[in-house]
Design a protein that fits this description.
This protein is α+β, with helices and mostly antiparallel strands and about 210 residues long. The protein has six helices and eight strands. The longest helix is centred in the first third of the chain and has 28 residues. The radius of gyration is 30 Å and the shape is elongated. The relative contact order is 0.12.
Length: about 210
């Protein structure tokens, strides 16, 4: 029918207008038919139409609220890396390789796994010992830093700013993803990473590195 097509075409009428139109049509159908024996007063018709309109707006508002509530916020999806200070990074890497079987490279080791949201896609986590003198973890005074994988870094950073979270730097984009650093309430510096796992794997292959899995 025409009114159905009209309400499906959001370019020609907004949602409230659509609800109003449908409520008027519904009100007319619900009211008794005009006849010689049953005459409806004008005021009754207006009241019924207004009531239908208000009900329609209420249902529309509820639907909008549910729709917005169902939109998942940007969030952490897993651990992207563990970084820590040590006195002798090279010896530490060798020890972990010899005793715990990690496939190490000059930066540490990369763990390969499959993602829970889509088991056909690979995911990666970096393990890296740093020199004790590194400034990479500043302004934190801690001896470690955790990297968290996130699904939408730009959206998450916007939410964090709104919440008053300290953003240490600006978002940096590289071939294998986006990065930014923040501080948690306990003074820990956190690295947030929106990964491009395909490019990350390609980089490792180019370097001749083997993953641990």
């Amino acid at each position: 029918m025409w009114f159905h097509g009209r309400c499906l075409n959001h370019n020609s009428v907004n949602d409230i207008e659509c609800v109003t139109f449908l409520m008027i049509v519904s009100a007319k159908r619900l009211l008794p038919f005009y006849s010689e024996r049953h005459v409806i007063k004008k005021s009754t018709l207006i009241a019924a139409v207004m009531l239908s309109f208000l009900c329609g707006v209420a249902f529309y508002a509820m639907g909008e609220h549910i729709a917005h509530s169902s939109v998942e916020k940007a969030h952490v999806t897993g651990i992207g890396g563990v970084f820590f200070k040590c006195s002798k990074p090279k010896e530490v890497r060798e020890w972990y390789s010899k005793n715990l079987g990690l496939n190490v490279n000059q930066y540490g080791a990369v763990f390969e796994w499959y993602q829970g949201a889509d088991s056909s896609k690979k995911g990666f986590s970096q393990w890296s010992p740093f020199k004790a003198s590194t400034t990479y973890f500043e302004p934190s005074q801690k001896d470690f830093m955790i990297n968290y994988r996130v699904d939408n870094l730009d959206a998450l950073v916007a939410d964090l700013r709104t919440s008053g979270v300290q953003i240490v730097d600006t978002v940096q984009s590289v071939s294998y993803g986006k990065f930014v650093h923040i501080m948690d309430p306990d003074g820990n510096k956190l690295e947030l990473w929106e990964p491009n796992d395909v490019e990350y794997e390609r980089l490792g292959i180019t370097m001749g590195s083997r993953t641990t899995k």
